[in-house]
Amino acid sequence: MVVTFDKVDTRPAHIEAILSGLDRYNPETTTIFQDYVVQQCEDRSFDCYANLALLKLYQFNPHLLQPETVTNVLVKALTVFPSPAFSLCLALLPAYTQPFPKNEAEAQAAQTSDFVESVQKLARLSSLLESAQYTQFWSTLNSDDLYADLVADVAGFEELVRIRIAVEVGKAFREINAEVLEQWLDVRNREALEKFVTEVCTWEVEKSGSSTVIKVPTNKENEARSEVKSERVGVDMFGRVIRRGFEQAA
User: How far is it, in rounded angstroms, from Cα 125 to Cα 138?
Assistant: First the structure.
């Protein structure tokens, strides 16, 4: 049996069998993949390859498309940023759902479809996460009840995104002010923030007077290292030039 390129430890055996064969193009497997998406939403797992296979089936069989399942796949993809999962999923959706319509007909279709509005709102969230506008991400997420409806089926959505943001922050900072981190993680309670950074992130909290600084341990991403580049030029590299210098003109 051929091994799929995107191995997931939590992937059930029957899903693995479908993805490893031609059945992944069989429309009859659509319901199986849809049930698997529900499972991912419940147990906080994520299987990008299986979800892409489902979206590909929708692409080949538009009449089978389930808007709620598609939005759940996109929401799950948000929880694994900055991986390209969201962009890969978005690329398999119908052209009229894309954030930037190519013509007036697509623009009009977008204005009259709740599904398209949902996709474009999720694309907005993805853009904010990818550009590290974390404060704006949370304010946008909390600004519309539609966002709450879109993420409702995904268990622990906010916690999963919060962890991903913390991972990215840990790659860029050695220390950060607690007030700033509260906004980036949307944790408005100082006690809750300190519990999160110490228990989940294993970072340190340093208090000095009225200010609190979060210390991030050194890792290969945030470590400041000097780099010295040198070029070694051997005499033999100039041998031909030197010989020509002693040659007499013909």
Answer: 9
Q: Helix, strand, or coil here: 88?
A: helix
Are 19 and 49 in contact, with CB atoms under 8 Å apart?
yes
Residue linked to tokens 């904010």: 128
Using DSSP's 3-state secondary structure scheme, residue 141 falls into: helix
Distance CA 50, CA 80 (A): 15
Q: In what order do the strands lie in the sheet with 175-177?
A: 175-177, 211-215, 204-208
Domains in the chain (CATH in brackets) are 11-155 (1.25.40.250), 156-222 (1.10.10)
Q: Tell me the two tokens of residue 179.
A: 């007030």
Residues 198-244 have pLDDT tens digits of: 999 999 999 887 888 999 888 888 887 777 777 776 767 667 777 77
Find out whether 121 and 40 touch, Cβ atoms under 8 Å: no
Model pTM? Answer: 0.82
Whether 3 shows a pLDDT value over 60: the answer reads no
